[in-house]
């Protein structure tokens, strides 16, 4: 146990040093998932409070990222296709940037659908359960999502640190680092954690107020 705490302290020290080599080495220790659990619980709670305190961000943050990245991807592809086949020129980064922007869009969309509760949840089946059974299913959802978040955040942080330590540059550019895009993954999953905690708090409040727990939802339904 003491060695695990020492490794956890090493991770915090490495992050404070802002040295990618130290961070990458520290995250390869056994304490990485303990650190990830702290990030998931504390980070998710902090983001939840931040989103609640700024209603504009709470309502529009994910959808703004989604629309912005989608339009950027579409614009880059459209313009570069015209330039390539009409003017016989093409920006060297035009084929490497869109996949990374899609990475941003995909995980922002995951967080957004979590907010809307539009992920697969077998709502019709849950509606037939008693209220305590419905609440238990909602708690199970939260636990599973937070567990998935822990795995994704830890592994993506390792990938981000490894990319930074190896000075990986986006192909076709001179100074755009790949870790900038990889870092979006743990950030997006922290937003997702915030939405999970937010939904769970709403579920508990609904249970106490004897309101319906299971709600049928659709993408774009807010």
Which secondary structure elements does this structure contain, and how are they paired or packed?
Blueprint: H1 2-17, H2 20-27, H3 32-53, H4 55-86, H5 97-116, H6 123-126, H7 131-165, H8 179-182, H9 184-208
Decide which structural class fits the backbone: mainly alpha
Shape: flat
Major pleated sheet: none
Strand proportion: under 5%
- The string of secondary-structure elements, in order, is HHHHHHHHH
Assembly form of the protein? single chain
The radius of gyration is 21 Å
Q: How much helix, percentage-wise, in residues?
A: over 70%
Structural descriptors:
single chain, 9 helices, flat, mainly alpha, 222 residues
Description:
- This protein has helices at 2-17, 20-27, 32-53, 55-86, 97-116, 123-126, 131-165, 179-182, 184-208.
- With 222 residues, the chain is an all-alpha fold.
- The protein has a domain at 2-60 and 122-208.
- α4 (55-86) packs antiparallel against α5.
- It starts with a helix and ends in a 14-residue tail after the last helix.
- 27% of the residues are buried.
Short description:
With 222 residues, this protein is mainly α. Helix content is 75%, strand content 0%.
